[in-house]
């Protein structure tokens, strides 16, 4: 089951994911991204997924635990050099980090931004930035605070830092 299917199910049931479940999913997602970003094997180093979104996050349930798996590595990019960055404008618009939207060089941090968009969507059940105003919104950090705890809102604020 994908994360978007899980979220859609909750919306249909008119319920929300509780904060503990959201945090567990987010921690699993960040763990998977850290694995990719630090990957070194057989000449491949530092993989940037570049298409983190609800549809590409899969949930696998075992007994009492949910595990996150990433899918769709079609536009993933490896960065062999320590400071290597890329400039391609790829991925799904609403998940794109400011560096991509503005046409700058970027690295694996764009995946963390996209994970922040996923986090926001899980909390609010909507996108943090309005289509058509994305460039203005992300450069001016315009998005609604979530209905979550102040700690969760602080996490969203840190992730949505432009030029970290």
UniProtKB/TrEMBL annotation:
Pfam families: Pkinase. Keywords: ATP-binding, Kinase, Nucleotide-binding, Serine/threonine-protein kinase, Transferase. It catalyses: L-seryl-[protein] + ATP = O-phospho-L-seryl-[protein] + ADP + H(+); L-threonyl-[protein] + ATP = O-phospho-L-threonyl-[protein] + ADP + H(+). The keyword Nucleotide-binding applies. Gene3D superfamilies: Transferase(Phosphotransferase) domain 1. Its EC number is 2.7.11.1. InterPro entries: Kinase-like_dom_sf, NEK_Ser/Thr_kinase_NIMA, Prot_kinase_dom, Ser/Thr_kinase_AS. GO terms for molecular function: ATP binding; protein serine/threonine kinase activity. SUPFAM superfamilies: Protein kinase-like (PK-like). Residues 1-164 form the Protein kinase domain. It is an enzyme of class 2 (transferase). SMART domains: S_TKc. This is non-specific serine/threonine protein kinase. The lineage of its organism: Eukaryota, Metamonada, Diplomonadida, Hexamitidae, Hexamitinae.
């Amino acid at each position: 089951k994908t994360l978007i299917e899980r979220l859609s199910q909750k919306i249909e049931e008119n319920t929300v994911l509780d904060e503990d479940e959201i945090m567990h999913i987010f921690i699993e997602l960040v763990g998977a991204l850290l694995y990719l970003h630090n990957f070194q094997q057989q000449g491949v180093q530092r993989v940037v997924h570049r298409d983190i979104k609800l549809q590409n996050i899969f949930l696998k349930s075992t007994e009492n635990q949910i595990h996150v798996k990433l899918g769709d590595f079609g536009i993933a990019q490896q960065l062999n050099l320590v400071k290597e960055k890329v400039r391609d404008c790829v991925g799904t618009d609403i998940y794109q980090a400011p560096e991509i939207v503005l046409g700058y060089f970027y690295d694996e941090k764009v995946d963390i931004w996209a994970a922040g968009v996923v986090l926001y969507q899980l909390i609010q059940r909507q996108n943090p930035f309005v289509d058509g105003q994305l460039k203005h919104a992300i450069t001016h950090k315009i998005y609604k605070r979530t209905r979550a705890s102040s700690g969760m809102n602080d996490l969203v604020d840190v992730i949505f830092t432009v030029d970290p």
